[in-house]
Amino acid sequence: MTAIKVYLKAGKDESLRRFHPWIFSGAIARMTGKPEEGEVVDVYTSTDEFIAKGHFQIGSIAVRVLSFEQEEIDDAFWRRKLQTAYEVRQALGLETPTNDTYRLVHGEGDNLPGLIIDVYAHTAVMQAHSAGMHKDRMRIAQALSDVMGASIDNIYYKSETTLPYKADLSPENGFLKGGSTDDVATEYGLRFHVDWLKGQKTGFFIDQRENRALLERYARGRSVLNMFCYTGGFSFYAMRGGAKLVHSIDSSAKAIALTERNVALNFPDDTRHAAFAEDAFRYLDRTDDRYDLIVLDPPAFAKHKDALRNALQGYRKLNAKAMEKILPGGILFTFSCSQVVGKDQFRTSVFTAAAQTGRKVRILHQLTQPADHPINIYHPEGEYLKGLVLYVE
Fold first, then answer.
1. N or C: which end of the chain has fewer CB within 10 A?
2. In Å, what is the CA distance from 54 to each residue of 62, 197, 367?
């Protein structure tokens, strides 16, 4: 079947010539037919020159580019793309006897916009963020099996909450391969339960792996407060690092239950840890406890630009409260995972919080996402995780 051709308006091909993987609906002049959601289309300039091929979708981002070459998006294409992604992770040394948790595919960062694949031991969790990746899920799953071989026994598809609801795709979460209920994976020698069935994202926040390992180096002898703890990742790294006390806070009772299971998996009957299901701001307001290491890893305060102003105020307020609760000589790990919040904007919010509290603050580390969450150099929007490690006098 001949692919539908999408023609761009004059001058709207400049970003594609710089290999940016998105085509916005406003850049399209006309099409030779009416493509279905998720269909592969060929993109041409206003002068009838082929420039890209990608998944079509109704919405602001109309085409997510799969290739800048005139090639078939077939089984061989998916195998080749996944093989390249796998070789990058092998080069990073992420498959070891003490680590079987990593991101295999990171959307645009691996030239597969709209696709996320996380590996937890012998299970791969696949998530589609575009109609095209949803429609091609079975071919992708087969290619994944071909590339990973015996190292992957299960492929779980988890896209009910990530696909555009207007596309009327009726996605259902479930196993595309296997069906194991073994949900324990290992990260740098620490074990944890992964809730890929009902948990956030794919079940665990792999993007904080290196930052958790960094926190472990600062934890010895400190009292630690882990805010927005989710599954407790920072908490059990702090405990292994020798923290004298760890408090984990999350508004979700289910998250707290999973945190307690994960702590027990690594440190059974350890009395240093306590967890509380409570709103973060309310906890900081009511507690008289002061800590000498605090982690602030909130969910995205802004998912779109309209919410940016309120998000920056939220980061300022949260960091100010934390600085009021931190002891002299304390360490503050503070993060933003909001893609629309820039590094400088986040840093300014934290700076304003410090000035508001009157504390002397130094930046020890500027943090970002790990190497298995790569940023396509032609797609700077892919840099979403920002973090600062602060020394508070």
1. N
2. 9, 30, 33
Query: Which element (helix H / strand E) includes 366?
Result: strand 361-367
Amino acid at 277: A
Report which of residues 382 and 165 the model is more confident about.
Answer: 382
In this structure, what CATH number is given to the domain that contains residue 63? 2.30.130.10
Question: How many domains, the chain?
Answer: 3
What's the token pair of residue 250?
């999350």
Q: Which of 337, 389, 390, 392 is catalytic?
A: 337
Residues 96 and 119: beta-carbon distance below 8 Å: no
Supply φ then ψ for residue 352, to 5 degrees.
Answer: -65, -40
Q: Tokens representing 100?
A: 């079987």
218 and 241 within one domain:
yes
Distance, in Å, from the CA atom of 356 to the CA atom of 323, rounded to the nearest integer, reads: 10
Q: From residue 123, give the alpha-carbon distance in Å to each of 88, 107, 259, 263.
A: 19, 19, 21, 22
Domain span at residue 118 reads: 75-187
Say whether both 52 and 82 belong to one domain: no
Sign of the C-alpha dihedral computed for residues 227, 231, 237 and 238 taken in this order: positive
Residue in this structure with the two tokens 């296997």, named with its chain if needed: 178
Q: So what's the pLDDT on residue 152? A: 95
Q: Which residues have a Cβ under 8 Å from the Cβ of 121 and sit 6 or more positions away?
A: 100, 101, 182, 184, 185, 186
378 token code pair: 């032609």
Residues paired with residue 245 on neighbouring β-strands, in sequence order = 223
How many Å apart are CA 53 and CA 393, to the nearest integer?
A: 54
What CATH number should be reported for the domain holding residue 165? 3.30.750.80
- For residue 192, is it within any domain? no
To the query of whether residue 229 is one of the catalytic residues in this protein, the response is no
Name residue 347's amino acid: R
Residues 292 and 228 in one domain: yes
- What integer is the mean pLDDT of 180-196? 92
In this predicted structure, what is the pLDDT of residue 167? Answer: 62
